[in-house]
Amino acid sequence: MDIKRLLDKMSLKEKLYQLQQLDSNVIMYDENMPVTGILQKLELDENYIFETGSLLNSFGAKRTIEIQKNFLMHSKNKIPTVIMQDVVRGYKTLYPINLGLSCSFDMDLCEKCASMAAKEASVDGVHMTFAPMLDVSRDARWGRVMETSGEDTYLTCEIAKATTRGFQGDGKTYGLGVGCKHMAGYGAPESGKDYNLSDMSEITLREIYLPPYKASIDEGAMLVMAGQQTLNGVPCVLNSHLMKDILRDEWGFDGIVISDYNCLASTVDHGYSESHKQAVELAMQSEMNMEMATTCVVKYGEELVNEGKVSIEQIDKAVLRILKVKEKLGLFENPYRYADPNEANKILGCKEHKELARIASEESAVLLKNDCVLPFSKDVKSVALIGPLADEKQIVGSWWCAYDKNETVTVLEGIKNLLPYVKINYAMGCGLELDATDISQIDEAVELAKESDIVILCVGEDMRDSGESKSKAFLELSPAQKELIRRVTESNKNTATVLFTGRPLVLTEENKTAGAILNVFFPGTEGGNAIANLLFGNSVPCGKLTMSFPHNVGQCPVYYNHFKTGNYRTDDTKRMVFKSGYIDGPNKPLYPFGYGLSYTDFEYSSHKISSDIINDNGKITASVKVKNIGKYKAKEIVQMYIQDLFGSVVRPVKELRGFKKIELSPNEEKTVEFEITEDTLAFVGADLKRKAEKGRFRIFIGNSSEIEPFAEFEYK
């Protein structure tokens, strides 16, 4: 396809419609093609509707094929549309929410899950996904932390690379074009309120929030979605410094930049654009290429060109980028790409995919506490299954595409599948509402707990309380759930609390009262089967937290890689005068980044570094011996952190710079090695350039971020 020649044939109006993304519901594929009420409301021209560059959401392979046929029939230039969808954490088969999956620290698993999602989505008619979501987030009050990979930039970059590879595939079989989001700083809203402003230094932007997007782009991402918020006073979608200076000029990105839903029009609400017309003018200057949902570009584009405020060259550049992406996706050769209703019926929700979803759920679970309660014996005669989420399909969590939530395996179903011979005594105990105070059902739950061998207590968040626009001022469980946990645990010490959540919660009280806490986040399609395997020892928890759990909400944002201060508090257990801290609580979180227990114990010994000096372009090796000294074969995530003691800007107390997931049988020992290079030590300095600076460093290797250094070395 000669893209340039095609561009030259197009009229200005046809070009403007290529810059438009509409919900696919707007496009009717009836042969008579009447203009719907939606088209009239959006002020779209019926004669150009089939020049629309992109549609949002597929609604199935059959519909995709019908829509595309109509585009090819009615489009003057026979340009196929590209169908995009938020395939965030699965399509038909759902794996754990992203925050949960990140706790697996398993890049191969992340890639396989993304590949599975891409296979299901692409065969069902989707061409591109708005994923991975790469917003680093340190504030649990923000509802969309459930879609992130947590608080650490290094880990998010590794996941960005793995999921981008997984979504894209090898180009020979099923796969999706990748559109990473939301650039940039969207995960750092003031007060944790969604859509709120993000205000940060250029160093923080470049050091913490930008690298994951660069990692995804380097792996082949074709599209970048702009954040919905203002970054340092300028809406991201119109932020020329962000989208042109950095994304285009520095990184050389030549793909599509798309606004988020209603994002361009909302710049008027921000008080940045005087009108929708001016928003389009500014969008062309910042090199935005595609407008999602709203229709400012097609309404005002011609007028702006005629007035000389937008050049035809700017329009052509934007259209050319869109056409190139369509060419890369192979849509000119095969407009239907992988869409196949018959194959979709075989692939979507297949046994193989459900098996992968179950494994992902098991690998993602984090054991927060265990006072010799877990694992339960399979020889038990009776189980009390209690809690508002014990027999609830919504444990699947938010963000799905073609999924029917009734396919979710509940905890009750999972226990029955594993132990069909065991008597299960079920009680809801209380409601799931945020402020639930009704404790009238707790007495029944307590009686069932007393007469049962073991208790499985399923509590947490309502699925609908995490996600977009689901910010919280309080992070504790409801009063009713707190009372349920306290009384049931008192009545039977063999009680395991299973926690479902889309974000870190304040569990200070529960950490004192519960005998065991297994955090499973929102585990997806196979949640119930995975939880049963974890509780009864078929699988051993190995997940590690990727976002710190605070002692109280007043600590937020709380994260492990903070800076020291001039009056750094060294003793976090007591009130200290003239030190940086709280007079009514600790600085440290309840559960830190990298934390997670197992059913076995691992011993770390023989920490070594190959040299205490590293030179330019050189490397040293850090190693540790890890031994399984417990009774269960299990996996351990070995983590390496580095501290730069002095720099041209203040450096964090430690930063994750490597991790390896190993599996050990009882009494088995392995030596785990990490390579440290000049790049390992690099950071964004006062001159805004990323480089390593000469000086001394400390190294930490262990099982969480709260470990002590074992050696120092010098970069000369």
Radius of gyration: 26 Å
Strand order, main sheet: write it out. Answer: 9-6-5-4-3-2-1-10
Q: Which oligomeric form is depicted?
A: single chain
Count helical runs. Answer: 20
**Overall SS class:** alpha/beta
In total, the number of strands is: 26
| DSSP strand content | 15-25%
Q: What shape does the CA trace take?
A: globular
Q: CATH superfamily membership of the domain at 365-543, which one? A: Glycoside hydrolase family 3 C-terminal domain
In the CATH scheme, the class of the domain at 365-543 would be Alpha Beta
User: Roughly what is the average pLDDT, rounded to an integer?
Assistant: 96
Helix proportion? 25-40%
Low-confidence stretches: none
What can be said about the biggest beta sheet?
8 strands, parallel
CATH architectural type of the domain at 365-543: 3-Layer(aba) Sandwich
Distance between the termini: 54 Å
Q: CATH topology of the domain at 365-543, what is it called?
A: Rossmann fold
